[in-house]
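User: Sequence for PD-(D/E)XK nuclease family transposase below. Tokens please.
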Amino acid sequence: MSKKSSNLKFSTELDLKRRFLAELILMDDIFMRVVLKDVKCTEFILQTILEKPELRVKSQSIQSDLKNLEGRSLVLDCLCTDKKGTIYNIELQNDSLGASPKRARYHSGLIDMNISKKGKSFDYLPESYVIFICGRDILKGDKQIYHISRIIKESGAVFPDQTNIIYVNTSKSSSNELGKLIEDFYTADPKKMHSKILAKRVSKLKIAENLEKGDEKVMTTYYDRLKRQWKKEGTEEGMAKGLAEGLEKSEDTMAKLMGILVEEGRIDDLAKASKDKSYRKSLLKEFQLI
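Assistant: Structure tokens for PD-(D/E)XK nuclease family transposase:
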């Protein structure tokens, strides 16, 4: 364990929450969804990715539930419409399995199915964009951004169905505007962000005492879920033997692990540990907590 981590001390639960919030970045999916509740942030991200500074978001929905009565439904990170009626679906995908080309295809098709109206001509279907912001180069072409649309093979002309799929590869850096946006996605300190719009929103959300009730509930999802799960497992695995509450030792151990991971910026490890018992145990061993 590093000297820095071994000296971690959190005097109150609020201290731990503050540290947790301070280390979150936009590439953490829960945090991104809360940030995008501010339409100005959604608008700025779309303007930058699409190189359309004139784009204006008219309406949006976070965690939009698209139903498919005959098959698989989807919960979309962000679904929005601009003033021209174009539809955008923004998805943050750190897992390559969650950003496969066929998943992108399914997103596009299910959006069409949910917005189409009985009796309406198909010509009324609006232009749509499915945008996957990925933590790695899913398409393996060493590009920062990929624009996908159907073409007519014989002529090379664009097939005008107005469906667009975009992959943003955040593992590829550059000094252009998209590169600056990608840097912001990985910057924990809002004072160091390029975008004033994103920085203002992130700065507000990182002050625990200033969070709105709805935002606080989402922002502390990791924190509260981890505590509940680890308390339960503390009983099941005997991690809290001999303590008055029967769970204090387990909670204290897990709080230390959370603090270490947050301090070192290992938010992905924290999320994975909340779901994978064996991975959680390996982290406890790594930091000599068991």
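The chain is about 45% helix and 15% strand.
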